[in-house]
Amino acid sequence: MATLLHLDSAVFPQGSASRDITAAFVEAWREQHPDGTVVHRDLAADPLPHLDAGSTAAGADDPLRRELADELAAADAVLIGAPMYNFTIPSTLKAWLDQVIIVGHNAGPDSPVAGTPVTVVASRGGSYAPGTPRESFEFVQNYLEKVFAGMFSTEVDFIVPELTLAHSQPSMAELIPLAEASRTQALEDARKKAKALASRLAA
To answer: Which E.C. number(s) belong to this protein (predicted)?
Structure first.
């Protein structure tokens, strides 16, 4: 029985592209693997404290940090909703990372989470794809890839719904068809990825 650790960090509980797509992923996961377990943390509704001197010094002896690290280590797969806020990840997701990354305990070449598949739904209001004018402003995929592949040695895959502000920003109205196509593709990718992972881990 496989366990999926699901993190959401979008500030709005409704109307969030990242939440809609992580929800589609979880639904497909449950359909494919009904006996599996889903552990959900809503980092916006229940934010974690920022790292302080005491918890930093305590490392894995800090109860909260140990709980989060154990939760991550117990997961067979990880799903993260990471919308772009001000060119990077939400502060609540950064707080989770700061708490869960414990050098000498789970970060490094011998990480206990090495090889764990991590799927990140990296939604954004515009486009920061290679070749676009704002390519150099992309600090979500670049950062999370370095953290999860570099520090934890996990398998990282990104689903990137773009142009999510097209429907609400008049200046982006002409981009609505592209936004809808990006959302449709992201939902399809999420469902396919979830089913494939659930099948692989349940085998």
So the answer is: 1.6.5.-, 1.7.1.17
Q: Is 69 annotated as a binding residue?
A: no
The DSSP bridge pattern shows strands 37-42 and 117-121 to be unpaired
Q: Answer whether 81's CB lies under 8 Å from 10's CB.
A: yes
Q: Is 153 annotated as a binding residue?
A: no
Q: Is 9 annotated as a binding residue?
A: no
Residue 155 forms beta bridges with which residues?
117
The token duo for 146 is: 């370095």
Write the CB contacts of 169 (distance below 8 Å, at least 6 apart in sequence): 125
Say whether 111 counts as a known binding-site residue.
no
16 annotated to a ligand binding site: yes
DSSP secondary structure letter of residue 88: B
* Beta sheet of 77-81, edge-to-edge order: 37-42, 3-8, 77-81, 117-121, 155-159
85 annotated as a binding-site residue: yes
Counting as low any pLDDT under 50, the low residues of the chain are none
pTM for this structure? 0.95
